[in-house]
Amino acid sequence: MDWRSGPAGPLRGSVGVPGDKSVSHRALMFAALADGASHIRGFLEGEDTRATAAVLQQLGVRIDAPADGERVVHGAGLHGLRASDDPLDCGNAGTGMRLLAGLLAGQAFDSTLIGDASLSKRPMRRVTDPLTAMGARIDTRDGLPPLVIHGGQRLHGIRYELPVASAQVKSALLLAGLYAEGETEVIEPHPTRDYTERMLAAFGWPIAFEPGRARLSGGHVLHATGVDVPADFSSAAFFLVAASIVPGSELRLPAVGLNPRRTGLLEALRLMGADIRVENEKTSGGEPVGDLVVRYAPLRGVELPETLVPDMIDEFPALFVAAAAARGNTVIRGAAELRVKESDRLATMATGLRALGIQVDETPDGATIHGGTLAGGTVESLTDHRIAMSFAVAGLVAQEPVRINDCRHVATSFPGFMELANGCGFALGVAD
Ligand code: S3P
Question: What number does the ligand 1 atom closest to the CA of 310 have?
Fold first, then answer.
């Protein structure tokens, strides 16, 4: 399915973005391993998180959906999962596959994790190597999915210093650590999102953690609990950029998750001159949340501080669009991880923006984006959901419509994006 996004605006109104993807995946997994029934509210009804729910159901977990955005997970207990005869399909979800790899490494039975064409190209050694060091046995296809996980191994804790900052790898090791003898300790080169640590504590598992470091031992029990999932900052990001670059805009984004390991884009946009306020700050389900109020403001290019990169790792496609619409140059460094996301996001954004008339100089770990006027044109999303939505934002300020090819995966993270976008003033539709 291709999209067409035309010049439009100003953007006005209140935009309620769906639940957080990272939190939704984890809530399902911990609830599945807990004793008792856990009620999840604000669950992301995305294809990625539904794929994780389906995998857990295949492993024998009962999951009810009493309403849209709600799940009741009847925990099977730490040792209550059952083998599945069929492969477990994670769809497009790297988070699903990597976290499940850690969870399944500790089971008594064998499992096979598969994914779609995009996920089948994503590197898995970053999880299988340290899991192997813990005693797991996992076969890959040259470091790529499918993952064949041999159960019945005795896992032991390790102390692991992550070579790259990755919440997925950290979480996979902590999940395996639940089943390991002794202590599992994970040390990060830069702190990443800590939902796994916070949620393990909420489910009653003893865990010591601080930014950049987490430590737990096997042999405890997870107790069912309620989980309130905040709205996903990464989904709010498209609207933060859109309202910042379309003159006359003002949008309110209610109750967005503001975990500091996720809000790097807020700082980046403010450095560029954006007008974004946080109102009604509170804590919900142990997470900081607040309403984001964003008004149009002329943006200027910046040298992005490298320390912000892990805190905005999913927001670079949106940032590229903000940079293209800004006055002057924006320089990104230290972001090589973007090359192994749902697409090579440095290359995909650089190619797409060039097709719209913006000069982008790509480097191995970043890019310089020369702000200017976006013409119309055709861009490829390469089935990457965040690339598709970012170019929908670009269309708002282009001189002619932007055609975005292959947007079928937007619902992995943001079901209903088109309706919400059009509801606040986008001119977005399916292309002929
Ligand atoms: C995620 C971690 C990040 C992020 C992904 C979600 C998570 O990936 O890009 O969208 O939920 O742990 P990495 O750990 O590979 O950086």
Answer: 16
